[in-house]
Amino acid sequence: MKEIDLVVIGGGPAGMAAAISAHKNGIRDILIIERDSSLGGILNQCIHNGFGLHIFGEELTGPEYAWRFAQQVEELGIECKLNTMVLDISGDKTITAVNSTEGVMRIQAKAVMLGMGCRERNRGALGIPGMRPAGIFTAGTAQRFVNIEGYLPGRKVVILGSGDIGLIMARRMTLEGAEVRMVCEIMPYSGGLTRNIVQCLEDFGIPLKLSHTIIGIHGKDRLEGVTVAAVDKNRVPLMETAEYVECDTLLLSVGLIPENELSKEAGILMDPVTLGPVVNESMETSLEGVFACGNAVHVHDLVDNVTKEAMLAGECAAKYILGSGRSEGCKALKTVAGNGIRYVVPQLVCKEALGKESKLFFRVDNVYKNIRIVAAVGDKILYETRKLKVSPGEMESIRLHASIAGSMGDEGEIIVSLEEC
Amino acid sequence: MLYDVIIIGSGVTGAFIARELSRYQMHTCIVEKESDICMGTSKANSAIIHAGYDAVPGSLKARLNVTGNEMMEMACRELDVPFQRIGSLVLAFSESEREKLVDLYERGVRNGVKGMSIISDSEIKQMVPNVSSEAAYALYASSAGIVCPYELTIGAVENAVENGVELKLDSEVKQVRFEHSQFVVSTGKEDLRCRYLVNACGLYADTISSMVGDDSFVIKPRKGEYILLDKSQGCMVGKVIFQLPSHRGKGILVTPTVDGNLLIGPSAQEVDDREDKSTSASVMEQIIRGARKSVPNFNTRELVTSFSGLRAAASTGDFIIEPSRVNKKFIHVAGIESPGLTAAPAIGKYTVEILKEQGLTLVEKTDFNPLRKPVKRFRELGMEELNQLIRKDPRYGKIVCRCERVTEGEIVDCINRPAGARDVDGVKRRTRAGMGRCQGGFCTPRVVEILARELGIPMEDVTKSGRKSKILMSKTK
Question: End-to-end alpha-carbon separation of chain A, Å?
Fold first, then answer.
């Protein structure tokens, strides 16, 4: 059985940055396993720009951003297996993978990097009632058809969900000559970045219907229309507002779910809120030597953050392989999502293992204005700041400076919460 | 060409009749109105092989249920179809309900069902721990099981075609005439002639029957909606869990599927529109509430999909399998609602007997092969076998559907088999590509590409399920 120091699962932005970082930190025996025919991951189909503002100081398109890393991977001579699907990770870090040329193979890894990204929530999971015609796509699948295959999935479009992918596709379909009739969003606020609402909807005159959802799908062979209704504050449809909207295409942008079939099968401890693995400050999961980064851990808004997170994970994986990683006796504090917070990553923090770039990432559970963000252990406030506005669609972070680490004790939990100003 | 027998309808009923006929020397043809086989009730039902205590003793349903149940193991082995005889429980929540269980038990005895017993709450708890502790008694039937109903239908049609039966798709029968001792079946595309005509038209059995002037029964469609939960929920119960049946049907069941999902349903609503396979929010809630009575703790957040099927219930209440009073060479095989799936192999034999009685000569073929060419499924094979397979055909090393582990090799194979897939749903039913958690989000573009390539058609012409269900509009600018 082949033995490799670091096996990276996924050659998207997370996997590539992690592999490059591990290399920079002294590891040479690295293998990236990627199921698609090229590196880049989901970025390959994100042809709009806006990537890399923080990392490169430029606004690149997805493929351009990905290419910068793919180039480095090649220059560093990091081995990649493309068109290869990982089937299994065992508890002792044996990877089973398959491709057309080598068949089913087993690889023993010293360390594993999980960079599988995420998948989209679909109509089936939502249980939208009605018929089952052609013409219903998740936004990402439609994006693949348009940007990679070169086909238009529809001409008269309704979009459910104002997350970034839905907003981006509203613009994309319009640019290809389709009529996007509306974007419906069940919450009273949009889930996407403000800049996307402006650049994708407002600039094109596409109506955004907040507190609206789709309660029926009509059409036998191909979609003919949907029934749209307003919802009350408990997100229950108000039947008297039901309206039939004619369309031939429904795009769903209703949530991303970290891909974790492999993690679950390996017995890795999962976080029921993020739906990704529980990780510590070194991006290590509950399975020793198995690290994770990117959307597989929690869904990011900015690929720049994925890159930074992956660089940290790669560095820590390298240290682990070289035997200089975090010590066994490291006492980790749990991070807790307090008032107004949906989740915090990492879920475990050991102050001795914190680095210069260590951060706590979190998302809020609603739109709040004029609030204070507080991180505290018991009564001791480690950090606080004020913000004019926070929303669930924009991930926030707290940098864990050395001074913060210094004030952390060995006991208790780090609670991140929102408080009134 | 004068066919000996034309079978109208390629559901599980038509499929098994065709397969049975293909044992004999004659020209048989299946005529199907949709773009693929198995497009009706056979692809949207509870997938249960019933023990046979439900049906009224003496009815055709009762007889053919029990015989079909006995034949199912061998049929599934020959056709390479998954089948698990896991057993079933009908739950009773009170003493008075227990009496109804006794009724069912006695009915079962009269119908010839073996392996039944009435068990108490502690035995229920031991057998299926996740069943509600309110369940006081249950009728246990060891001969019940679960199957893949569309794979069964597809397997039977494939085997029939391999043994010489012709299949005509996109051929809706518009008119039937009887002249010079021959039926002339007009599909709008062509006129087909045959000596015997079998009506296996499911929801439209009465429509076809009227074409020969036989209005002796009416089909009353009854919709059943279902909910399919994730494979993580599939181990909630290890047996089919029923509640007491009512006049509307067998009630809401909770069952594992052969693929490891958890299936809940069906509802029962009479509908007028035979094409109305819509689901509704209120019925879904009703099904969940009803199912929780049997199994309180399944997790509905793990919803994979929901769907509905229409039962082709005959106004007579029983199967109608007999020559038409108007024309004895026109054989009805109608009203095949539950336990139609279980009865299918028996219905096949029984129908051929009827044809024989009506003068059809049966001379056995010497080269009839009951074994369908086995399907190589990546997810079922071990590492050694897989590597041998991939060396021979590298496409079996390219995973297209990662949720269900379906390879390009399997997809290409299912398109190129007899009665092969011609659209995305056809590939889905034959390989499971698209049935997993992401519901085709990842694999659909690839499946469309493979279909276009194998069928030699442009991507824009690939459909979801035939006719006008195109997936793509055009190329981009």
Answer: 60
E strand or H helix that includes residue A2: strand A2-9
**B385 neighbourhood in chain A, CB within 8 Å:** none
Sequence length of chain B is 477
Catalytic residue (one of B27, B50, B180, B332): B50
Residue B182 in tokens: 């021959």
User: A289 — contact with chain B (CB < 8 Å)?
Assistant: no
Residues 118-177 of A with CB under 8 A from B: 119-120, 122-127, 129-135, 137-138, 140-141, 144-146, 148-155, 176-177
- SS3 state at B146: strand
CA distance from start to end of chain B = 49
Query: How far is it between the farthest Cα atoms of chain A?
Result: 65
Chain B residues near residue A12 by CB distance under 8 angstroms:
none
State the sign of the Cα–Cα–Cα–Cα dihedral A261, A264, A266, A270.
positive
Residue A354, token pair as written in the block: 């914190």
Q: Is the dihedral of CA A233, A239, A244, A250 positive or negative?
A: positive
Residue of A87, A80, A97 whose CA lies nearest to A38: A80
Q: How many CB atoms lie within 10 A of CB A86?
A: 24
Q: B306 and chain A: CB distance < 8 Å anywhere?
A: yes
Of the candidates B171, B152, B170, the one whose C-alpha atom is nearest the C-alpha of residue B160 is B152
Can you read off the two tokens belonging to residue B163?
């043994």
B377 to chain A, any CB pair closer than 8 A? The answer is no
Predicted confidence (pLDDT) per residue in B163-189, tens digit? 999 999 999 999 999 999 999 999 989
Percent of chain B with pLDDT over 90: 98
Please indicate whether residue B50 is annotated as part of the active site.
Answer: yes
Question: Would you state the structure tokens that stand for residue B158, as one six-digit string?
Answer: 């494939």
Any A CB within 8 A of B473 CB: yes
Quick count: other Cβ atoms within 10 Å of Cβ A146? Answer: 22
**CA A377 to each of CA A78, A336, B442: distance values in angstroms, whole numbers, following the listed order:** 42, 10, 43
Among A135, A152, A154, A123, which Cα is nearest to A222's?
A: A135
Distances (CA, A) of B67 to B24, B77, B322: 22, 17, 18
The candidate with the shortest Cα–Cα distance to A52, out of A308, A304, A300, is A304
Chain B residues with CB-CB distance to A155 below 8 A: 473
Bridge partners, A334 (sequence order): A348, A413
A380-408: per-residue pLDDT in tens? 998 999 999 999 989 999 988 777 777 88
Close Cβ partners of B10 (under 8 Å, ≥ 6 residues apart): B18, B30, B32, B37, B38, B39, B153, B157, B167
In sequence order, what DSSP letters do the residues of B69-94 get, joined into one string? HHHHHHHHHHHT--EE---EEEEE-S
AA letter at A41: G
Structure tokens at B106: 């006695």
Residue pair A259/A276 in contact by the 8 Å Cβ criterion: no
**Residue pair A363/A397 in contact by the 8 Å Cβ criterion:** no
Report how far residue B232's alpha carbon sits from residue A343's, in angstroms, rounded to the nearest whole number. 24
In eight-state DSSP terms, residue B373 is P
Is the dihedral angle over the CA atoms B371, B377, B381, B383 positive or is it negative?
A: positive
What residue type is assigned to position A8 of the chain? V
For A346-412, strand residue ranges (E) read 348-349, 359-364, 368-377, 380-390, 396-399
Q: How far apart are CA B227 and CA B237, in angstroms?
A: 15
pTM of the model: 0.96
pLDDT in tens, B268-280: 999 999 999 999 9
Please tell me the number of Cα atoms within 13 Å of A61 on its side-chain side: 8
Q: Tokens 């919460």 map to which residue?
A: A417
d(CA B126, CA A42) in angstroms, rounded, equals 48
ipTM, interface predicted TM-score of the complex = 0.95
